[in-house]
């Protein structure tokens, strides 16, 4: 295992062309589970390929611990890899498939037997070890692929490229949980590429959110939810995402089309100094209805959806659209709704960056 350090790393596919990856400086800790999350084309695969050695960066260094691996080919980097589609030997047994990376390194058969049994047990493959891989379901084949990626103990890191793409939707959540457990037991450094926020949030200790070749935030799922450092992170994480309103700051408050919203005074002051396009962000589930007699903000309600354990209100504050998640006990009509943006949950952004928090 190793920490992964990206030192002033950047990539242009053509000299002088667009940056597929903007210059970045990051350290990913030894034994951590990281997810690279972002929309199509944001640079996830480019970054993963640079880490695995399939692609040489046009700028910067990649370090595994103290070892500079920037120019080393994949086979000299000591990494495990799992791809979108199963990479297995169909004619071999499941056991031999899992044993392959170990036997390749000439490890003793006693050890191979123990380690393969351990990994098969973790992934629920113990009952099919003697079967030929080709006779198994697509899900089981991908589990073998996961096992092959995880079986070596001496790897610097294991890289996963959207490994649950071929898995049946109703089995995906089981395998996500399984991978999480495997990580806790094996203590490997894992890097997992996905465009699916649920996969990223259940799998990773730290999520690396990317957009247009830039890393916008590296944070725990909780930090990404509570303090998105960029408006895109707030919008991309959560279902639905964070609400944003164009606003001004005046007398320590945010002004949204004439509606006054109390915000943290230090944040209001910093926002005033930052200038630029100011926005107020708040999560749909952190808005509450005003108590009897309490002065709130009046929303025009456009639509109320009953989603079982909560109601999703779509409405407007002035001309600006928002979502509010309400408990069922707060059922409302479709005329108007008085709400409060609790001060501790109302965040200010200047030119898309969280004021006073982050880069
Ligand atoms: P996806 O989720 O669709 O795989 P991604 O986040 O992995 O997307 P990349 O495939 O890394 O994104 O692409 C990042 C940028 O680099 C995109 O603008 C893409 O068009 C460009 N790109 C990717 N591969 C090449 C290539 N071989 N030559 C030129 N440009 C490329």
UniProtKB/TrEMBL annotation:
SMART domains: AAA (SM00382). Keywords: ATP-binding, Cell membrane, Membrane, Nucleotide-binding, Transport. Gene3D superfamilies: 2.40.50.100, Nucleic acid-binding proteins, P-loop containing nucleotide triphosphate hydrolases. Pfam families: ABC_tran (PF00005), OB_MalK (PF17912). InterPro entries: AAA+_ATPase (IPR003593), ABC_transporter-like_ATP-bd (IPR003439), ABC_transpr_FbpC (IPR015853), ABC_transpr_MalK/UgpC-like (IPR047641), Mo/tungstate-bd_C_term_dom (IPR008995), NA-bd_OB-fold (IPR012340), OB_MalK-like (IPR040582), P-loop_NTPase (IPR027417). SUPFAM superfamilies: MOP-like (SSF50331), P-loop containing nucleoside triphosphate hydrolases (SSF52540). The lineage of its organism: Bacteria, Pseudomonadati, Pseudomonadota, Gammaproteobacteria, Chromatiales. The keyword Nucleotide-binding applies. Residues 4-237 form the ABC transporter domain. GO terms for molecular function: ATP binding. This is ABC transporter ATP-binding protein. It comes from Spiribacter pallidus.
